[in-house]
Specification:
With about 280 residues, this protein is of the alpha+beta class. It has helices at about 65-80, 100-115, 125-130, 135-140, 175-185, 195-205, 205-215, 220-225, 225-240, 260-270, and strands spanning about 5-20, 25-45, 50-55, 85-90, 145-150, 155, 165-170, 245, 255, 275-280. Helix 2 crosses helix 3 (about 125-130), helix 6 runs antiparallel to helix 7 and helix 8 packs across helix 9. It is globular, with a radius of gyration of 19 Å. The two termini are about 30 Å apart. Pathway: Isoprenoid biosynthesis; isopentenyl diphosphate biosynthesis via DXP pathway; isopentenyl diphosphate from 1-deoxy-D-xylulose 5-phosphate: step 3/6.
Length: about 280
């Protein structure tokens, strides 16, 4: 039986602004996405009929509600074939954390089935399939550093912002992306992140300007409901982070560091009070 093993990398949002609510219920956003080296491992095996999903984390659904199931269905539809698949997910990215764990697994399945079934779809074709699965899936196929607009599907590649030290702190609470967006009061937004300045900082590889000016509009919903997110951000700054921000709709908070010793001290402190604390870095 032929099988493929694919590394499915997570992401953080270095900045996130929400522009407007669309008629289809989605929101138009403006965000800088950055791939990190925290990854799930997705094994894909050929199967004659149907789909079997396994995962080492019981929090992850193994039925049709998992985005990898949708990815398999979309690929069958696009290729006009009916083939089965066995998907095994080694979950290392925290679930429902704002790090695109579900989206990156779906992206891995699209890439894997393209290879396994010898379909030869281009990256652009895979990204077009991906947007019908989830807003972050096209980015997860592309990777690297990108400015994302629309619902997240309009992507512009930015210069690499790799090898920056990042500390992730996940407080172990579950946050619904839909709930956060639906609770967002656009008329109450006082200050949006300066995306032009932040894109320029990324392009200049200027971690200091970026860290000082990062912003995430969704924090005004999530922080209000979960005060520990604000506390984690403050703790990270106190322990030497250049800047700290909630990623996506949360609840994971990340800190950008330029000093490994400070990062390790911050990790040791946060581990006493936060469910998951992970050292990672930005990658291309």
């Amino acid at each position: 039986m032929e099988e493929l093993i694919i590394e499915a990398y997570g992401k953080v949002n270095l900045a996130l602004d929400v522009i407007r609510k669309r008629n289809d219920g989605y929101h138009d956003i403006n965000t800088i996405m950055q791939q990190i080296d925290l990854k799930d491992i997705v094994t894909i095996k050929d199967r004659e009929k149907g789909i079997k999903i396994e995962c080492n984390n019981p929090e992850v659904p193994v039925d049709s509600s998992n985005l990898v199931y949708t990815a398999w269905e979309k690929m069958k539809e696009k290729a006009k074939i009916d083939r089965g698949v066995h998907i095994i997910i080694e979950k290392n990215i925290p679930v429902a954390s704002g790090l695109a764990g579900g989206s990156t697994d779906a992206a891995a399945v699209l890439k894997g089935l393209n290879k396994l079934w010898k379909l030869n779809f281009s990256k652009k074709e895979l990204m077009d399939i991906g947007v019908s699965i989830g807003a972050d899936v096209p980015y997860c196929i592309m990777g690297g550093t990108a400015l994302a607009e629309g619902i997240g599907e309009k992507l512009k590649i930015l210069k690499s912002f790799s090898n920056k030290l990042i500390l992730l702190a996940n407080p172990g609470i579950s946050v619904s992306t839909a709930h956060v967006y639906n609770s967002l009061r656009l008329d109450k937004i006082e200050k949006s992140p300066d995306m032009d300045m932040l894109v320029q900082a990324v392009e200049n590889d200027d971690i200091y300007t970026l860290a000082k000016n990062m912003g995430n509009i969704l924090e005004q919903v999530t922080v209000e409901e979960f005060s520990q997110i604000k506390t984690i951000k403050e703790d990270m700054i106190r322990y030497g982070a250049l800047g700290s921000l909630m990623s996506g709709s949360g609840p994971t908070v990340f800190g950008l560091f330029d000093d490994e010793k400070k990062l390790v001290k911050c990790k040791e402190y946060l581990e006493k009070k936060v469910a998951k604390v992970i050292i990672t870095k930005t990658i291309e």
